[in-house]
Amino acid sequence: PSVDDLFREIEKDRVFFTKSGGGVTVSGGECMLQIDALEALLAMLHENGVDTAVDTAGNVPWTSFERILPLTDHFLYDLKALTPERHLALTGVRNDLILSNYRRLLQTCAQKVIVRVPVIPGANDTGDEMEKICAFLNQYPPARTEFMPYHRLGEGKNAALGQSVFTAETPSKARIDALYRMCGVKN
Predict the structure, then answer these.
(1) What is the DSSP letter of 29?
(2) Most C-beta atoms within 10 A of its C-beta, which of 4, 94, 127, 179?
(3) List of residues 6+ apart from 129 with CB closer than 8 A
(4) Strand order from edge to edge, sheet including 113-119
């Protein structure tokens, strides 16, 4: 579908997000990899008074952020690991660009940035890694931080596709609450 088609679909639900005070979050694998379409959609939404959020891991050129900054009300920014080697092992990419873009985004519009940290036991939920994430967030505080517990919803799909299945236990509410306290942020 075209950007116009997508906008028409979104318009059908305007009553729901207008009444709830919500808006449109653009996500996907990495929506900023399709920057031309993203910019066009955000422009349409912005022109029509729709609140917008972009969900990103930040592993894109800074010029992509510059293109959409005036059109985006909120950035949902994923931080998966601070240690470069751990980030590479978990995601297949280094985190230098991700962290650099995050710091630049904060300098530009800190009030728009919500950091989301997936909490994955044995992957990034180790004492030292979470301490590093907390130290980083305290040094570069976003408007809000969200710790998101790992869930197992994708495991069946991966198994059905014959892909290797990563498994971990879902962190308890007590563990998530402890992370908020450890980082000194409210949940």
Answers:
(1) S
(2) 179
(3) 81, 82, 83, 86
(4) 24-26, 52-56, 74-78, 113-119, 144-149
Q: What is the Cα–Cα distance from 7 to 28, expressed in whole angstroms?
A: 16
Structure tokens at 87: 């980030």
Two structure tokens written together for 26? 């653009």
Q: Which of 99, 32, 94, 91 is nearest to 67 (CA)?
A: 32
Structure tokens at 100: 């650099």
pLDDT exceeds 90 at position 29: no
Give the per-residue SS3 of 42-103.
Answer: HHHHHHCCCCEEEEECCCCCHHHHHHHHHHCCEEEEECCCCCHHHHHHHHCCCCHHHHHHHH
For residue 34, give every residue at least 6 positions away whose Cβ sits within 8 Å of its Cβ, in sequence order, or none.
none
Does residue 63 carry a pLDDT above 80? Answer: yes
- Is residue 165 predicted with pLDDT exceeding 70? no
* DSSP string of 124-143, one letter each residue: TBSHHHHHHHHHHHHHS--S
Quote the pTM value. 0.91
Q: What is the pLDDT of residue 115?
A: 98
Of the candidates 179, 109, 96, the residue with the CA atom closest to the CA atom of residue 137 = 179
